[in-house]
Write a sequence for this structure.
């Protein structure tokens, strides 16, 4: 079973939501679509589900036109960003609902609904109304309702985004093992969180302004982002970008900063480039480039240090909680062997060897 | 602090109850009076202040020409009000769902214009509609009939049902419809199995409005009937002669409020149970 989309395009009120999307999804595949808000992720899922007609483009399932099939005849299940369940039905009836619509008998539907509720850990709540459950439990009910009918297409639209941090991590793990069991389905999961996308997906599609910029395994996309936009989306915080030139066997950045030319850039012709450096790869070293602290954000057990200097602005991700005052002067290490090189058009030219980091 | 709050609360409830119940008690006491009892200054307590009499009530069921027979108009009113309300509620709910969920365009007329068209029927003063309604009923041969009155009342009540239900459906998240279709419901199944069961509070409010407006209407009950058919409000007013019979007017007023009280008690528990909470967070 293969779902193929060619050149899907949709413009609503002059705003392009999809701009020529091509995808090929196969049974058993676990696809995450990573992109910022308004990248067109939800629209793409709605088009696949049949809730949203497109201006142009083809959508085929196993070579047959899928566009003409109305939503209710498609074998599709969906979990929304908002926790959507039927308010007038109890949890068991909610989960049994899609089966009943497929013509499964009441007793059999209840049995399978109970089984699925057990998989999401809600067997004790089958007589509650959705409104009597917490947010995480409501989303588990929604997931159970999506899993129960074993649809060909299982679509999840940022299902964890409305949960608090702790619950999000917990449900991410639960979703990971539950989705991995869906070997007979095509699973598509959208998210704005790179960690989530890489953790859950076997294939990541990076989406931006209605286009798919890059498709690949999590490692491939993370280690070799196709261009500057992907590098920004796949890294959290986004990858730092510095303008500079390669000349005389060295990298020169603005502010009279000179860095040694690393091995992976050896074959690049001299000229102007943009250099990318992940926040986690930039470090603090007293004797390195002097910069001024603009902001210190503490997130969990890490500190995100925003600094500015002659070469531009950077964000550093430092282990531990550090208190910095705005205006403090710090030394910032810019390891050139960890830098990505992008051309002036934004395309990736060279990536650091992924092994270097681990050594 | 809590005691003070409770004290204040019950005092407010008591005060409001006085406002609501007071006129009914007054009417009740008046209905047992005779002409002398009414004209002889303010009196309230039977036997002590005036001699009670059942004359006011007897008039309502007297058929010998000295009173009126209220039973016929009473039944007509029930038939007209409840059937017109039921039909308006069914048609209005279907129309409202369409207006809330789909986009229509007919030249420069858009969905919101159609919704306003429904509501605008209630902005017009009824007198403007009386003449066209009269001519239409005459053309159909339905003047002075129950069927004709039902048609007129549907025209009056449908806008109310549409108005209430459009507003209600607009507050039901569209994702619930989409979810139902993804779960295998055709559009009509989505409406019947998912949207309608969740719309009980809205249906109750719309139905209640229809029944109240229909039951209390005097104008069309008066203008569309002559002799064969008579509705309750007209029959009550017909009691008036050279002397206003306060006693029988009071009795008929009390009798005519009974169906509304019954309906209110029947639907009260649905009104307080808004269960859409938890559909979407």
């Amino acid at each position: 079973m293969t779902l193929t989309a060619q050149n899907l395009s949709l413009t609503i009120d002059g705003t392009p939501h999809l701009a020529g999307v091509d995808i090929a999804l196969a049974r058993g595949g676990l696809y995450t679509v990573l992109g910022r808000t308004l990248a067109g992720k939800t629209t793409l899922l709605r088009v696949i589900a049949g809730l949203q007609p497109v201006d142009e483009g083809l959508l085929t399932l196993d070579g047959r036109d899928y566009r003409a099939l109305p939503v209710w005849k498609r074998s599709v299940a969906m979990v929304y960003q908002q926790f959507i369940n039927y308010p007038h039905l109890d949890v068991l009836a909610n989960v049994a609902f899609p089966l009943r619509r497929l013509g499964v008998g009441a007793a059999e539907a209840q049995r399978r609904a109970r089984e699925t509720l057990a998989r999401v850990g809600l067997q004790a709540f089958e007589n509650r109304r959705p409104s009597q459950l917490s947010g995480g439990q409501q989303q588990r009910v929604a997931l159970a309702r999506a899993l129960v009918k074993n649809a060909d297409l299982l679509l999840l639209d940022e299902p964890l985004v409305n949960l608090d941090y702790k619950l999000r991590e917990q449900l991410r793990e639960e979703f990971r093992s539950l989705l991995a069991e869906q070997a007979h389905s095509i699973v598509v999961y959208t998210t704005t969180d790179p960690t989530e996308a890489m953790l859950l997906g076997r294939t990541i599609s990076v989406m931006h302004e209605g286009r798919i910029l890059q498709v690949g395994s999590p490692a491939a996309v993370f280690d070799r982002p196709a261009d500057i936009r992907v590098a920004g989306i796949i890294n959290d915080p986004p990858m730092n970008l510095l303008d500079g030139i390669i000349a005389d066997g060295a990298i020169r950045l603005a502010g009279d900063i000179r860095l040694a030319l690393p091995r992976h850039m050896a074959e690049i012709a001299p000229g102007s480039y943009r250099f990318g450096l992940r926040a986690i790869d930039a470090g603090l070293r007293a004797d390195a480039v002097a910069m001024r602290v603009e902001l210190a954000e503490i997130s969990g057990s890490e500190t995100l240090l925003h600094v500015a200097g002659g070469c531009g602005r950077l964000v550093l991700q430092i282990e531990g909680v550090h208190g910095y005052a705005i205006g403090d002067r710090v030394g910032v290490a810019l390891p050139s062997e960890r830098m990505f090189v992008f051309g002036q058009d934004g395309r990736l030219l060279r990536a650091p060897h992924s092994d270097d980091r681990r050594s | 602090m809590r005691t003070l709050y409770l004290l204040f609360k019950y005092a407010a409830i008591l005060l409001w109850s006085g406002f609501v119940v007071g006129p009914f008690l007054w009417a009740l006491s008046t209905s047992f009076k005779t002409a002398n009892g009414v004209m002889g200054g303010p009196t309230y307590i039977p036997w002590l202040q005036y001699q009670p009499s059942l004359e006011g009530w007897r008039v309502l069921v007297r058929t010998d020409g000295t009173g009126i027979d209220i039973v016929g108009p009473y039944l007509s009113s029930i038939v007209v009000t409840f059937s017109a309300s039921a039909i308006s509620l069914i048609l209005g709910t279907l129309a409202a769902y369409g207006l809330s969920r789909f986009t229509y365009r007919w030249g420069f007329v858009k969905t919101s214009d159609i919704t306003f068209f429904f509501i605008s029927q209630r902005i017009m003063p009824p007198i403007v509609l009386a003449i066209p309604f009269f001519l239409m009923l005459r053309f159909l041969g339905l003047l002075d009939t129950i069927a004709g009155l039902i048609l007129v009342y549907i025209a009056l009540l449908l806008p109310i049902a549409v108005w209430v239900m459009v507003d209600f459906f607009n507050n039901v998240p569209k994702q619930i419809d989409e979810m139902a279709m993804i779960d295998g419901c055709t559009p009509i199944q989505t409406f019947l199995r998912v949207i309608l069961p969740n719309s009980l509070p809205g249906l109750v409010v719309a139905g209640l409005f229809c029944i109240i407006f229909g039951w209390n209407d005097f104008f069309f009950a008066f203008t569309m009937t002559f002799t064969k058919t008579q509705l309750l409000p007209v029959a009550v007013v017909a009691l008036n002669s050279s002397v206003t019979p306060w006693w029988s007017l009071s009795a008929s007023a009390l009798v005519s409020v009974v169906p509304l009280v019954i309906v209110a008690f029947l639907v009260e528990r649905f009104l307080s149970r808004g269960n859409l909470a938890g559909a979407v967070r």
